[in-house]
Design goal:
The complex is a heterodimer of chains A (162) and B (582). Chain A is of the alpha+beta class and 162 residues long. Chain A is 28% helix and 42% strand. The two termini of chain A are 30 Å apart. The chains are: A alpha+beta (162), B alpha/beta (582). The complex binds thiamine diphosphate (TPP).
Chain lengths: 162, 582
């Protein structure tokens, strides 16, 4: 079986408990959740969840079908089957004595990230991009010492006007 | 049959009276909305959080409310009512412990796709989340075992929610829907606007009509098949498609096996019927599945009790799966021709120009031969009472006309094996969850739905003790269920596993200390009879049948009897222990 990463968008009724219904389904049926993000959609009363999961084709098919069984689920779209844009945001608090700052700034600029806070011996970096970009940036910052990390998980959309 | 099952008072006039738009409480809205859904019987148990609802029921006689002795009794009764009638079963419980006592019953209904509307009270909206007295997050607790659920926060939503709940419960793949009503919502007043319009929900549109192309593919597959077989399940019964199934089977001439929940969906007397498949299925059905080249699954879900070891299941067959729930298709078994739709509708469409399976003559003969050679068998005895013999006796005296409910265990399998069914909704048993304690209270519900029919409940001595308190409501309402106990003095099915799989290490299966069931019945005011040999058995059963009202008949049966054939876990279904090796 070919295990791959899938990004699924789920349009749901904005009802209390709907996140629990969706995440509970994943847990109960043994589907993996790598990340899940939820927020407003283009339509009042509907939220969009973006779920990154791993599994074979058969698992993906079951995930879609099982999601459709939830009454508050309106639409399920497998984004990764089409060209898509994925974005994730991360805040990274990295150790930095004043002397190290220019070096770190260099990394930040290369990644078109931003420094959003400066402490006596730390910097807070904000980076937006796809998962690979954030992973790569973290790799480079690791040597300085990462104090705190908070990633949002991916949100995504299909390109063009599909 | 003389019973006290009361007549429901509802008349058109009354309905009109109730349906006037008026400012009333949420509790009254609930009752009126239930009437609008055609409810005539509700099972329940009061408590603080539902007191406004019970107050509104004071003197209300438009539907019957049966006060069970445990919430588990109430929900299993509602389940039995639904299975035996095709209508939605309704039960009511209070918040916290009342609601959590329903959990087993909700899960039972969910696994077997029984339509239920389960109403629970909750603490007032202002107290929700504070760990208030008798608070439990019942919508959260039951999320994995309900088709949908509502926590009603605004009294004005009640009529719509109730209407939607009934719609969801009894359409598509049926199942239990929970409505949790906080106490202040049941007390609040608002203008009652009856909700009867068709339900339109964006996220809920079950596919009823199948894809035509897939049906054509199936027609072609039937014409080509040399060893075709039909595997029919509960979906046939739930969709009301039994007549269409009969036509399909007889037009194609394809042998048919029915799952535990499919029993009654096809008459057991028919030549093409080859019994139940799976763990305790027939030699014929299991071998036929394994050798078939076309397996047409109609409304069954390839449960592991049916398939045995999955890889190695029906290894030569092209697989067709007809199901209302798309998620069932391909879930356990890879499918060659998927058909999503309502079983009755699919069969109706399939029956137009359906071909006779012309290439299958040799196969038909082969299967018929197996059926002749290897029926279910047991060694009868004149010394001890054999449970299989008892079931056969019940069958003989009722000609398959009764509604039979069972509990879970060996007696359930013997009932499935030795009772003959000729109509749907005559067989009520917990298949998916295998819930002990289900058998007896579900019979009460089945009887409420069918006051004129004979209802027999077959139980083990173990499971009978899980809900025996409901004898009280049989006595009080003179509900004429015939309660059979096959007493083998042990947890029989567990003993069988310990004997065959755990090397005779009998661990905690002895039911010594069980009550004298005759006295137990009498303590509730129900007639109790006991039989220990064939003669007594026949006499006791005759007396039970001649007695109007409920009767408990205890048959003291052979303790050492096992259910055969048996497919042990990890084997393919044609590897059966036949029981005659010893
Ligand atoms: C609520 C519940 N608990 C435990 C079981 C496991 N179980 C399955 S069959 C069985 C034994 C049933 O014994 P009895 O009711 O005496 O019936 P018999 O098998 O002897 O006919 C048990 C304990 C179950 N199915 N349900």
């Amino acid at each position: 079986m070919n295990i791959t990463k899938h990004t699924i968008a789920v349009l749901v009724n904005d009802q209390p408990g709907v996140l629990q219904r969706v995440s509970g389904l994943f847990g109960r049926r043994g589907f993996n959740i790598e990340s899940i993000t939820v927020g407003q959609s283009e339509e009042v009363g509907l939220s969009r969840m973006v779920i990154v999961t791993t599994g074979g084709e058969k698992t993906l098919e079951q995930i879609e079908k099982q999601l459709y069984k939830i009454i508050d689920v309106i639409k399920v779209i497998d984004l990764s089957s089409k060209p898509m844009v994925t974005r994730e945001l991360a805040l990274i608090k990295v150790k930095s004595e004043p002397a190290e700052r220019p070096e770190i700034m260099g990394v930040v600029e290369t990644f078109r990230a931003a420094v959003v806070d400066i402490g006596p011996n730390s910097l807070m970096v904000q980076v937006v991009g796809d998962t690979h970009k954030i992973d790569a940036m973290l790799e480079l910052l690791k040597p300085y010492g990462i104090r705190e990390l908070s990633r949002t998980g991916a949100t995504a959309m299909i390109r063009g006007n599909v | 049959m003389s019973t006290n099952i009361p007549n429901v008072q509802s008349t058109d006039e009354l309905r009109e009276k109730w349906m006037k738009p008026e400012v009333i409480t949420g509790s009254e809205m609930l009752l009126r909305s239930l009437l609008l859904e055609g409810v005539d019987c509700v099972f329940g148990y009061p408590g603080g959080a539902v007191l406004y609802i019970y107050d509104a029921m004071h003197g209300f006689e438009d539907f019957k409310h049966l006060l069970t002795r445990h919430e588990q009794g109430a929900i299993h009764a509602a389940d039995g009512y639904a299975r035996a009638s095709g209508k939605v079963g309704v039960c009511i419980a209070t918040s916290g412990p009342g609601a959590t006592n329903l959990v087993t019953g909700i899960a039972t209904a969910y696994m077997d796709s029984t339509p239920l509307v389960v109403i629970t009270g909750n603490v007032a909206t202002t107290l929700i989340g504070t760990d208030a007295f008798q608070e439990a997050d019942i919508t959260g607790i039951t999320m994995p075992i309900t088709k949908h659920s509502y926590l009603v926060r605004d009294v004005e939503d009640l009529p719509r929610v109730i209407h939607e709940a009934f719609h969801i419960a009894n359409t598509g793949r049926k199942g239990p829907v929970l409505i949790d009503i906080p106490k202040d919502v049941s007390a609040a007043k608002a203008l009652f606007k009856p909700h009867t319009e068709p339900v339109a929900m964006r996220g809920y549109n079950p596919t009823v009509t199948p894809n035509r192309l897939q049906l054509d593919k199936l027609h072609q597959a039937i014409a080509e098949a040399e060893r075709p077989l039909i595997l029919a399940g509960g979906g046939v019964v739930y969709s009301g498609g039994h007549e269409e199934l009969f036509k399909f089977v007889t037009s194609t001439g394809i042998p048919i096996t029915t799952t535990l929940l499919g029993l009654g969906g096809f008459p057991s007397g028919n030549d093409l019927w080859i019994g139940m498949p799976g763990m305790h299925g027939t030699y014929t059905a299991n071998n036929a599945i394994q050798q078939s080249d076309l397996l047409i699954n109609i409304g069954a879900r390839f449960d592991d009790r049916v398939t045995g070891k999955l890889d190695g299941f029906a290894p030569h067959a092209k697989i067709v799966h007809i199901d209302i729930d798309p998620a069932e298709i391909g879930k356990n078994v890879a499918v060659d021709i998927p058909i999503v739709g309502d079983v009755k509708t699919v069969l109706e469409m399939l029956n137009v120009n359906v071909p006779y399976a012309t290439k299958a003559d040799e196969w038909r003969a082969k299967v018929a031969g197996w059926k002749q050679e290897k029926p279910f068998r047991y060694d009868d005895s004149d010394e001890v009472l054999k449970p299989q013999w008892v079931v056969e006796m019940l069958n003989d005296t009722t000609n398959g006309e009764a509604i039979v409910t069972t509990d879970v265990g060996q007696h359930q399998m013997w009932s499935a094996q030795y009772y003959r069914f000729n109509q749907p909704r005559s067989w009520v048993t917990s298949g998916g969850l295998g819930t002990m304690g289900f058998g007896f209270p579900s019979a009460i519900g089945a009887q409420m739905a069918n006051p004129e029919r004979l209802v027999i409940s077959i139980n083990g001595d173990g499971g009978m003790q899980m809900c025996s308190q409901e004898l009280a409501i049989c006595a009080i309402n003179n509900i004429p269920v015939k309660i059979v106990i096959l007493n083998n003095q042990v947890l029989g099915m567990v003993r069988q596993w310990q004997e065959l799989i755990y090397d005779n290490r009998y661990s905690h299966i002895d039911l010594a200390g069980s009550p004298d069931f005759v006295k137990l019945a009498e303590a509730y005011g129900v007639k109790g009879l006991r039989a220990t040999n064939k003669e007594e058995a026949q006499a006791a059963w005759k007396e039970a049948m001649d007695t109007p009202g409920p009767v408990v008949v205890e048959f003291v049966v052979n303790k050492h009897e096992n259910v055969y054939p048996m497919v042990t876990q990890g084997s393919t279904i044609d590897q059966m222990l036949m029981g005659d090796e010893e």
